Amino acid sequence: MPGLNIDDISERLTVAKKSPGRDTGLPRGDHDLNPEIYDPAQALISAAVLVPIVMRPAGLTLLLTQRTDHLDVHAGQISFPGGRVEGGEGLDDAALRETEEEVGLPRRHVRAMGWLDTYVTRTGFEIAPMVAAIEPPFPVNPDSFEVADVFEVPLDFFLAAGNLRQDARIFQGQQRRFFAYSYGERYIWGATAGMLVNLVEVLTDSG
């Protein structure tokens, strides 16, 4: 639904929080399009990411990162800032800490608005996505070891019909399907695209 403002988004997230869980009874995850890979007994690593919505004068944008190519997990992929939850740490603190460490965005610039569904990855992460409003100006100082680039994409791009697609690749001899977006030369797929699908569902009340 193009034309949403930040108050609309905050309200929709509040309503979504009160809604019942998914009809399937399963967590959201890479298995959405590949149900055969879901393993309820899989040990999962708790993680949290920030879904930062930047309030630009020309319109709302989403801040994303491009991971460096040498990382052991999800190298080179586009992602939201975030990472593992450390011992004794809350999900919100983990999302804020990781964001500050990865992109240099201090938590004082972040206004949390709500949460999307937990997302389970094939690689064994259970990710809690926290949606937040970011008001410019704010500093960006990416960690060059983890982050190759920090960039923004208009929120309306993800809300517009026709920009979401389903792609497939062969992984370990099996075809795996996944959600994907192409924005210029940027290819956004996998868990990040899956969380964006959830965000769009919440904002358009289509979930």
Account of the 3D structure:
With 207 residues, the chain is an alpha+beta fold. The protein has a single domain (6-20, 28-204), classed as Nucleoside Triphosphate Pyrophosphohydrolase (Alpha-Beta Complex). The chain has 4 helices and 12 strands. The strands form 2 sheets. Strands 1, 2, 3, 4, 5, 6, 7, 8 and 9 form a 9-stranded mixed beta sheet that branches. Strands 10-11-12 form a 3-stranded antiparallel beta sheet. Strand 11 and strand 12 (186-189) form a beta hairpin. The longest helix is centred in the C-terminal third of the chain and has 15 residues, at 190-204. 32% of the residues are buried.
Question: What characteristics describe this protein?
Answer:
4 helices; Nucleoside Triphosphate Pyrophosphohydrolase; 207 residues; alpha+beta; 12 strands; globular
Helix and strand topology:
Layout: H1 6-17, E1 28-29, E2 45-56, E3 59-67, E4 78-79, E5 82-84, H2 91-103, E6 110-115, E7 119-120, E8 125-134, E9 147-154, H3 155-159, E10 165-171, E11 174-183, E12 186-189, H4 190-204
- What is the top-level CATH class? Alpha Beta
Q: Indicate the radius of gyration in whole angstroms.
A: 16 Å
Number of domains: 1
Intertermini distance: 13 Å
Q: What is the name of the CATH topology?
A: Nucleoside Triphosphate Pyrophosphohydrolase
Structural class computed from helices and strand pairing: alpha+beta
- Report low-confidence residues grouped into runs of 5 or more: none
User: How many alpha or pi helices?
Assistant: 4
Shape: globular
Beta content comes to 35-45%
- The CATH level-2 architecture is identified as Alpha-Beta Complex
